[in-house]
Design goal:
Radius of gyration: 15 Å
Strand content: over 45%
Number of strands: 10
Helix content: 10-25%
Largest sheet: 5 strands, antiparallel
CATH topology: OB fold (Dihydrolipoamide Acetyltransferase, E2P)
CATH architecture: Beta Barrel
Distance between the termini: 8 Å
Order of helices and strands: HEEEEEEEEHEE
Structural class: mainly beta
Shape: elongated
Strand order of the largest sheet: 3-2-1-4-10
CATH class: Mainly Beta
Length: 139
C-alpha cells in the first residue's frame, strides 16, 4: 500500500466511521459501482488521471439515501438494519459489487430520523445511495 493511501485511511479512520468504495478514476471523476449501478464522484484533484484504480472514503452522513426506482443512477443496496437514536437514523445496507455473495459490501449511512420516518423505509427494502462528498485516492 502506498503511503498516501495509508495516510488517507488513518486520517479518515481517526475522524470516525467511513465507507470504502472501489472504482476507477478518469479525468477528474471517480466511477463507483458496476454496470447500470454506477455513480460518479467529482475528484478534480485527479483531473490528469486516465482510467486508474481508485478508492473513495465516504462518511455515513455524506450519503444521500432514497427509495430505488428502476434505472436510477447510484449504488443500489438492501436495507438490512435501521436503528433510530435520537435525531439520527443509522442504516446498515448491503450492496453487491460482484457476482458472488462474498463480494457483498456493508455500507453504513446516517440520515435524520425525521427523513427515515417520513420516507417509511423498512428493513429488506431496496434503496439507492449517492455520495455527496468523498475523499478520492488513486492506487
Amino acid at each position: 500500500m502506498r503511503a498516501f493511501s495509508l495516510y488517507g485511511y488513518v486520517v479518515y479512520g481517526f475522524l470516525g466511521d467511513v465507507n470504502l468504495f472501489h472504482g476507477r478514476a478518469h479525468e477528474g471523476e471517480m466511477h463507483i459501482g458496476v454496470e447500470d449501478q454506477t455513480v460518479r464522484v467529482a475528484s478534480p484533484e485527479h483531473h490528469d488521471t486516465q482510467d486508474a484504480k481508485a478508492f473513495a472514503y465516504v462518511r455515513p452522513h455524506d450519503l444521500d439515501v432514497r427509495r430505488y426506482t428502476h434505472g436510477e443512477e447510484g449504488i443500489v443496496a438492501k436495507l438490512t438494519r435501521a436503528i433510530v437514536v435520537g435525531p439520527i437514523a443509522r442504516l446498515e445496507l448491503i450492496a453487491a459489487e460482484g457476482d458472488s455473495p462474498s463480494d457483498e459490501q456493508i455500507i453504513e449511512a446516517q440520515i435524520p430520523a425525521s427523513q427515515f420516518y417520513e420516507q417509511g423505509f423498512t428493513e429488506g427494502e431496496t434503496l439507492v445511495l449517492t455520495p455527496r462528498k468523498a475523499r478520492v485516492f488513486v492506487a
